[in-house]
Amino acid sequence: MLRVLFVGRFQPPHLGHIHVLSWCLGFADEVVVVIGSAQESYTLKNPFTVSERLEMLRCAVREAGLPLAAFRFVPLQDINMNPVWPRYLETMVPRFHLVVTGNRLVAELFRDYGYPVAEPPFYRREVCSGTRIRSLMVSGDESWRSLVPACVASYIDGIDGVGRLRRIYGCSGGGGTA
Ligand code: NAD
Predict the structure, then answer these.
(1) Ligand 1 centre and the CA of 143: distance in Å?
(2) Same-domain status, 59 and 89
(3) Which atom belonging to ligand 1 lies closest to the Cα atom of 81?
(4) Are the CB atoms for 122 and 102 separated by under 8 Å?
């Protein structure tokens, strides 16, 4: 039984994330998907709540035709101590054998605890990123829809996610969505 760990903020879940989940199932039996920064929402960088992100991930997995039973979704709050973050995470999730990540800090922290780390293949890296998708939403550019699964776009419409993001942007006086 090979279980891999994939950590993200999923703000929102996009085609790159789903590509990684599908890639993982090419060699793993189960994927623990940690929804990080669970305490964050209603900010430019993290507009969606952890429960919204969970719902979007589940619908995206179903839409991609992947078996939902192969994924364990675990919300996880951040802590203010990077060096012990992997230990803290270990106490919240089932045991895993490999960390899949394209995030350099995440890779570095888990390597220091002796975990093997694999970098997943990037999917349309230059366009398919949460930062870019949020930025398109703020600027009223509808092309963000082509970068997320259809059910995620419908979900975001249903909660007026773009309106939320634009209002937060207005309140913050702008300044980027990274
Ligand atoms: P993210 O949603 O931006 O990315 C998640 C993963 O998807 C990354 O591995 C990324 O490389 C991959 N990805 C993104 N675009 C892709 C594409 N087009 N194709 C293929 N893969 C793609 O999330 P993130 O910011 O990387 O999440 C890291 C989480 O870990 C955050 O919640 C962060 O706060 C948390 N963290 C917490 C601590 C702490 O609490 N001290 C320390 C380190 C990390």
Answers:
(1) 22
(2) yes
(3) 41
(4) yes
Residue nearest to atom 42 of ligand 1 (CA): 82
Please list, in sequence order, all residues whose beta carbon lies within 8 angstroms of the beta carbon of residue 8, skipping any fewer than 6 positions away: 17, 33, 34, 35, 36
Is residue 159, in this structure, part of any structural domain at all? yes
Lining residues, ligand 1, CB within 6 Å? 7-10, 16-17, 19-20, 36-37, 78-79, 82, 85, 101-103, 105-106, 109, 120, 122-125, 128-130
Question: Is residue 12 reached through a cis peptide bond, with omega within 30 degrees of 0 on the bond before it?
Answer: yes
Query: Using one digit for the tens of pLDDT, what is the confidence trace for 152-170?
Result: 999 999 999 999 999 999 9
* Structural domain total, the chain: 2
Last residue of a domain, one of 118, 141, 159: 118
pLDDT digits (tens, 9 = 90+) for 32-81: 999 999 999 999 999 999 999 999 999 999 999 999 999 999 999 999 99
